[in-house]
Specification:
The structure is a single chain. This protein is α+β, with helices and mostly antiparallel strands. It folds into two domains: about 40 residues, no CATH class; about 90 residues. Helix content is about 50%, strand content about 15%. The strands form two sheets. Strands 3-2-5 form a three-stranded antiparallel β-sheet, with no helix packed on it. β2 and β3 form a beta hairpin. α1 runs antiparallel to α2, α1 runs antiparallel to α4 and α3 runs antiparallel to α4. It is globular. The termini are far apart.
Amino acid sequence: MSGLVLKLAPNERVLINGAVIENGSRRGRLNIVTPGANILRLRDALHPDEINTPVRRVCYIAQLVLSGEADPDDANPQLLNGIAQLSQVLRDRDSQDWLSRARDAVQQNQHYYVLKHLRMLLPFEEALFAIGAR
């Protein structure tokens, strides 16, 4: 069986195509086999007040697509532009790898993976801001 496999903690919530689904009291696993399903783990969701850095801004655009609040056709150019801008700043090999994966995911309309790959950049960004704050 192919597709996305979500491993859920007890009582974890996930948004699938606009419906909030809550796992039971035990660990669970969902196999998402429908291509193009919009999935957002609510533990990974960014609150609008948290959108205060460049990486978080691009993550938020992907999140809006997954929550059904933004049309992918409108969001994809913004995502690609944001990824291109980030690639000019985050020049290390790991960051470039995650940005490349995110770019590929945008081009394949796989917004769950766009968000997943971009979230990997958050620690790099935090480190850069910590260095700049010294």
